[in-house]
Amino acid sequence: MPKANQNPLAKRGLSSNTVLTALVLVVAVVVIGGVLLFKDGDSGAAKGDVPPEVLRPPESHTLTEVQDSKVTVVEFLDYQCPACAQYYRNITKQIEQDYADRITFVVRNFPLDMHPLAKPAARAAEAAGMQGKFNEMYHALFDNYQSWAVDESGQTSSDLQRAQSQFDAFAEQIGLDLDQFHNDMDSQAVRQRIEKDQADGGEAGVDSTPTLFVNGSKFEPSAQSYQEVDKQLRSELDEALDS
């Protein structure tokens, strides 16, 4: 995303390596919509187009899928990342709906160590996917973000028992077999899927969440608000669709 002298909205949740770097470097911080947003310099890894096999390997989860689509959006996200939740509420949820019949929208996992419930949430989404309900769990996690991701004071929660109780409630609401859901959450297959997403994200130059790619190129907004970022993303999508 943009360098430190550019858009204050761009960098959100950071990897542990970036956080350590931030202790040495000056990191810009801005509060937008009540969410603490971070930014740092380019990782240097994703300057150009990222190969499709890195961004979208076989069996990747898609929110929307259009055969022979001219546009593919890939988002690397962390379900407990406050900025991911804000992007969802202000940008990507509506993008998913408005462009449903025109683009393929791929979701990849990139849980960060700074968010203690990010990996359990990713396992919940992947376990739901094992029963064909990934999209439903993805939406449940973000639509009900406050119920599991933050504590009573509004800070990042580390209460795994509370979160798991909510994940179970979501699973029941979307019609999952609860025993299978639990088994899949703890399975090696689910853990390997998440690790694969993280490895691919690292290869693509992802170091914060959310990070989006449009047809292999990292989306790097220069806007100062979510509304303006939404306009920039839609402009890129429309341009790619019309090309």
UniProtKB/TrEMBL annotation:
Keywords: Disulfide bond, Isomerase, Membrane, Oxidoreductase, Redox-active center, Signal, Transmembrane, Transmembrane helix. Residues 45-199 form the Thioredoxin domain. Residues 228-237 have a biased composition (Basic and acidic residues). GO terms for molecular function: isomerase activity; oxidoreductase activity. InterPro entries: Thioredoxin-like_fold, Thioredoxin-like_sf, Thioredoxin_domain. The chain crosses the membrane at residues 20-38. It comes from the Bacteria. Residues 196-243 are annotated as: Disordered. Belongs to the thioredoxin family. DsbA subfamily. This is Protein-disulfide isomerase. It comes from Amycolatopsis cihanbeyliensis.
